[in-house]
């Protein structure tokens, strides 16, 4: 059993490494083929690295985007190593390091200079890469690390940190390239966030109601597949047939829906299942460790 667990863990590490490589290629393509030619900024630390690169373009020493991306993240790697987890810090370093190298090696190529087109396509590529990283348990550095630490120490939410930082990026784009470019940057930030939400489904919650006459079997099968709590309401009466049924309530992520459906199908194929979006949960909701 321990040997099987080691094999599974090894495959997870290989999968995460592959995801880090895919992310690096996507973000380097977004920066060098779209954002840089179109004078568009990314969100977060990547946007800050672009800003520094732009401001030092005609300085005696030009600080490239790839170099600054790694330099700004470097103190955060150390903090993540000691304050979050060694695995989290290692894969964050891998993803950011590879993307910094590829941004540096891939020279900007102007497919088009239209700011809106560059903003949209750059955001789609970067959003896909970031969403894949988050989905497979990899951080892309920067605000991810800051957000985790801030949530532990204060009541400030990650969304607040992102919004504040991105307002700064948009304002910088306006002052450096003009306000039309700032508006195009804003469009890119919105598309980037939307792409992340489409791919990173672990943060999207669903409240599930299951009506079944086999509550113990269904609950056991669900908990065999998922680490989720379940509340059972027994002897509920159905109005149509006046029969007594049992209702199970649970909350899962969208990422877990396939496993949930599989568990219900195995334990009670005739169960009635209803799902609604859960905008928030308060209390003990398990989240996998990073």
Automatic annotation (TrEMBL):
Membrane topology recorded in Swiss-Prot or TrEMBL: Multi-pass membrane protein
Subcellular location as annotated: Cell membrane
GO cellular component, one term: plasma membrane
Transmembrane feature ranges: 20-41, 61-81, 88-107, 119-138, 159-179
Keyword Ligase among record annotations: no
Major subcellular location class: membrane
InterPro entries in UniProt: DUF2179, N-reg_PII/ATP_PRibTrfase_C, UPF0750_membrane, YitT
PANTHER family: UPF0750 MEMBRANE PROTEIN YITT, UPF0750 MEMBRANE PROTEIN YITT-RELATED
Name recorded for this polypeptide: YitT family protein
Organism: Candidatus Limosilactobacillus merdipullorum
């Amino acid at each position: 059993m321990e040997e099987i667990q080691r094999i599974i863990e090894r495959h997870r590490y290989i999968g995460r490494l592959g995801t880090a490589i895919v992310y690096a290629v996507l973000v380097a393509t977004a920066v060098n083929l779209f954002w840089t030619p179109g004078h568009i900024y990314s969100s977060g630390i990547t946007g800050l690295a672009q800003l520094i690169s732009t401001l030092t373009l005609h300085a005696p020493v030009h600080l490239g985007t790839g170099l600054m991306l790694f330099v700004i993240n470097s103190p955060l790697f150390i903090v993540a190593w000691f304050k979050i987890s060694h695995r989290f810090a290692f894969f964050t370093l891998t993803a950011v390091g590879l993307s910094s190298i590829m941004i540096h090696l891939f020279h900007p190529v102007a497919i088009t200079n239209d700011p809106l087109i560059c903003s949209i396509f750059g955001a789609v590529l970067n959003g896909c890469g970031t969403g894949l990283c988050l989905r497979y348990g990899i951080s892309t550095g920067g605000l991810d690390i800051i957000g985790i630490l801030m949530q532990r120490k204060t009541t400030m939410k990650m969304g607040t940190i992102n919004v504040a930082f991105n307002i700064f990026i948009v304002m910088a784009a306006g002052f450096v390239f003009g306000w039309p470019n700032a508006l195009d940057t804003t469009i890119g930030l919105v598309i980037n966030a939307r792409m992340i939400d489409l791919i990173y489904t672990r943060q999207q919650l669903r409240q599930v109601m299951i009506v079944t006459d086999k509550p113990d079997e269904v609950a056991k099968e669900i908990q065999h597949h998922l680490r989720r709590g379940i509340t059972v309401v027994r002897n509920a009466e159905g109005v149509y047939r006046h029969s007594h049924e049992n209702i199970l309530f649970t909350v899962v992520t969208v990422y877990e829906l396939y496993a949930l459906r599989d568990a219900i199908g195995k334990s009670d194929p005739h169960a009635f299942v209803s799902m609604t979006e859960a905008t928030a949960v308060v209390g003990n909701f398990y989240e996998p460790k990073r």
